[in-house]
């Protein structure tokens, strides 16, 4: 069979696709009248005839576009500036950014809500971009003879039209928690054909230095709390970071910051505030330097879970628009506001944020200096209509809601909510797309649960980045009376490349591949996965299309390892393509599994999610095992109030557990651990097989943190590092304490 050429990715208008796709459809018509598309179209994939060969399954494409992958829903929208320009034209007076005013004197958020419209931000883009380029062009520390990135500054206005994946601008770096200035800087970068990248706290100093040196970034736009960090980094690495000559503070610089400005000068850096940059642009205006679909939009560094140096994933403007199309096809013109919680440095949140702008949605931002602990406070302040988050946050929501409802100490609450939630689940499982509406419960009970989390107005939730329990989706979808979509994607696919039906009768798939990506699987006989398996082909998932990355930045070796000669990216994830629908089910990792001594294979993520979604006392979970041991052990994070309550029931004196140290000392005693394991394994029941249940645990309040370098920004566990970090505790559980439940019935 002839090799299928890699798709080029033209705009969508295939005559063989559904009647929805015609060249004549306008931007607003398509948004309002036809999106989201019926699930019978968008949530299905079909095999390409004659494309199966050898150990590879057939190629599957979205049913909307069986003739080939496409990079955009709209002929007139091929780049992010075109996307935002359309939003300004059609939704100009809508608020695009909303945030809490910050009291810089007391360093606390106020109760005042500040909004910027699409028209206002459009004007800021012009001034910010012009000021940025001017300050780089006249920078006294610029040395085009020494630094290639400085030469690119001088050539930028003449060269930008020729930019592509191999020829691109200097790199602008963003370093900040989520805030509207982050997204504004991102929009400015695109409007002026400037490639950007991002740093984030969990990278650490060494990795941040590595990224700044590798990209030869001349400018960092950042929050004020990171200025000293970057100055220290340059002071310690003056040669490696010699290209860095401009820093833009998102926060105001006052006369009291004169020493900070002077110190920056001593490091050959001009330090200015964003307001100063904008005012400079007003004095020295400059026309936008618009990108093409081929222009390199961003380099997203992924830390991975092994602890090695991060790889810079190169993503073009084309990939960004393709990623937006996925969300529009699946969600459409529904949510008028969302909450920007996951790190913008991670591509998942950028996909969701950009998608919202397409239809004039409002992006709400966390309070400055916020944390996961202030999430619910912020949700109650903004009451967004949509929320994207990771499974570990949703399992905490689930545990909190269960404690107040189906697991409540109040027999009345338990009975009422238990009946309501069970009924709602039954109704939602009748057929795909069924919201399970109930006249009484939807008005009297579920609004109270939604309000407890600040989700009063929320219509749907989206999750991705890691596996999530089907029971979690079913419970939250019912208890909160919302849609719940699960997506699949990677940094290399500009986050989500598939998204399930929000009201899937039987959740568990990640939906069909989007119009910008085609898929197939390569069988893995050593793991028991084949392309002729019952229910659909199973094997390593391979991706190709305009939504995919073009390679790893300055890392040809890793690029060749993951992208084959036909342009297919090998994900490392094991999937099944459901035979009847072409939808994706992620079932394993090629490398992320291990075998116990009795020969049983274990997938730790599934076990961790099951424990966290089943018992609210568990806030974190890291499952460990190896081929020399017959049972699993775990590092577990605990909810302090519930752990205190548990120990009091065990007869422990209140005085001995009033301090965190006392609490952890008591709960880590073998007798108490055994009692706790008996409780949580009892709650698990038949959700896990016997060999999948934990036999011993070590408990802390929050064992898995970014400060310890044990989790990624999207809260994925860095397993090799975690195993090394907790080696002493793991060895003690295996070699000293042993199994605490080997005589118990599992």
Automatic annotation (TrEMBL):
InterPro entries: AMP-dep_synth/lig_dom, ANL_N_sf. It comes from Suhomyces tanzawaensis NRRL Y-17324. The lineage of its organism: Eukaryota, Fungi, Dikarya, Ascomycota, Saccharomycotina. The keyword Nucleotide-binding applies. It comes from the Eukaryota. Residues 173-553 form the AMP-dependent synthetase/ligase domain. This is Acetyl-CoA synthetase-like protein. PANTHER family: AMP-BINDING DOMAIN-CONTAINING PROTEIN-RELATED, LONG-CHAIN-FATTY-ACID--COA LIGASE. It holds the Pfam family AMP-binding. The keyword Nucleotide-binding applies.
């Amino acid at each position: 069979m002839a090799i299928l050429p890699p798709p080029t990715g033209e705009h969508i208008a295939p005559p063989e696709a559904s009647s929805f796709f015609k060249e004549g459809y306008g931007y607003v018509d398509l948004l309002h009248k036809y999106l989201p598309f019926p699930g019978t179209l968008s949530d299905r994939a079909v095999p390409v005839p004659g494309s199966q060969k050898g150990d590879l399954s057939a190629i599957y494409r979205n049913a909307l576009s069986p003739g080939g992958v496409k990079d955009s829903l709209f002929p007139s929208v091929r780049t992010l500036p075109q996307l935002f320009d359309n939003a300004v034209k059609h939704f100009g007076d809508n608020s695009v950014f909303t945030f809490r005013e910050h009291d810089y004197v007391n360093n606390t958020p106020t109760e005042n809500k500040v909004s910027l419209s699409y028209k206002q931000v459009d004007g800021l883009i012009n001034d910010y971009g012009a000021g940025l380029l001017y300050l780089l062009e006249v920078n006294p520390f610029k040395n085009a003879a020494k630094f290639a990135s400085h030469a690119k500054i001088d050539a930028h206005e003449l060269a930008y039209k020729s930019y592509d994946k191999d020829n691109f601008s200097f790199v602008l770096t963003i370093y900040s928690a989520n805030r509207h200035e982050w997204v504004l800087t991102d929009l400015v970068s695109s409007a002026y054909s400037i490639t950007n990248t991002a740093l984030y706290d969990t990278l650490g100093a060494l990795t941040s230095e590595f990224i700044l040196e590798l990209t030869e970034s001349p400018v960092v736009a950042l929050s004020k709390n990171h200025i000293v960090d970057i100055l220290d980094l340059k002071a310690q690495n003056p040669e490696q970071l010699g290209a860095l000559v401009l820093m833009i503070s998102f926060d105001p610089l006052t006369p009291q910051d004169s020493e900070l400005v002077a110190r920056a000068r001593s490091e050959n850096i001009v330090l200015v505030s964003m307001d100063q940059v904008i005012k400079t642009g007003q004095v020295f205006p400059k026309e936008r330097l618009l990108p093409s679909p081929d222009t390199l939009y961003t380099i997203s560094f992924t830390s991975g879970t092994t602890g090695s140096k991060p790889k810079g994933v190169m993503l073009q403007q084309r990939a960004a628009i393709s990623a937006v199309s996925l969300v529009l096809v699946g969600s459409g013109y529904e949510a008028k506001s969302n909450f920007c919680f996951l790190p913008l440095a991670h591509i998942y949140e950028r996909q969701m944020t950009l998608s919202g702008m397409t239809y004039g949605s409002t992006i709400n931002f966390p309070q400055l200096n916020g944390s996961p602990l202030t999430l619910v406070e912020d949700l109650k302040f903004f009451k967004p209509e949509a929320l994207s988050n990771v499974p570990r946050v949703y399992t905490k929501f689930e545990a909190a809601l269960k404690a107040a409802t189906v697991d409540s100490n109040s027999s009345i609450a338990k009975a009422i909510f238990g009946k309501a939630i069970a009924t709602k689940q039954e109704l939602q499982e009748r057929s795909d797309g069924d919201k399970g509406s109930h006249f009484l419960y939807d008005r009297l009970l579920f609004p109270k649960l939604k309000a407890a989390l600040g989700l009063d107005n929320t219509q749907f939730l989206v999750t991705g980045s890691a596996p999530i329990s089907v029971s979690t989706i079913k419970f939250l979808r019912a208890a909160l009376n919302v849609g719940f979509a699960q997506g699949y994607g990677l940094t290399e696919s500009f986050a989500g490349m598939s998204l399930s039906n929000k009201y899937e009768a039987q959740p568990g798939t990640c939906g069909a591949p989007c119009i910008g990506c085609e898929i197939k699987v390569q069988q893995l006989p050593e793991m028991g996965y084949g392309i002729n398996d019952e229910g659909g082909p199973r094997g390593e998932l391979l991706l190709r299309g305009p939504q995919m990355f073009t390679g790893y930045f300055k890392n040809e070796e890793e690029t060749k390892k993951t992208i084959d000669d036909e342009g297919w990216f090998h994900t490392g994830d094991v999937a099944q393509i459901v035979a009847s629908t072409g939808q994706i089910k992620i079932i394993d990792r090629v490398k992320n599994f291990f075998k116990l001594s009795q020969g049983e294979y274990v997938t730790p993520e599934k076990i961790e999610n099951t424990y966290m979604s089943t018992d609210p006392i568990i806030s974190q979970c890291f499952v460990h095992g190896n081929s020399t041991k017959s049972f699993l052990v775990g590092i577990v994070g605990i909810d302090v109030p519930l752990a205190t309550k548990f120990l009091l029931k065990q007869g422990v004196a209140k005085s001995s557990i009033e301090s965190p140290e006392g609490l952890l000392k008591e709960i880590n005693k073998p007798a108490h651990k055994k009692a706790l394991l008996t409780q949580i394994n009892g709650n698990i029941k038949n959700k896990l097989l016997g060999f999948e249940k934990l036999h011993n645990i070590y408990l802390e309040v929050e064992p898995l943190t970014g400060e310890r370098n044990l989790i990624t920004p999207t809260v994925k566990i860095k397993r090799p590092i975690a195993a090394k970090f907790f080696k002493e505790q793991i060895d003690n559980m295996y070699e000293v304490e042993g199994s605490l439940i080997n005589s118990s019935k599992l």
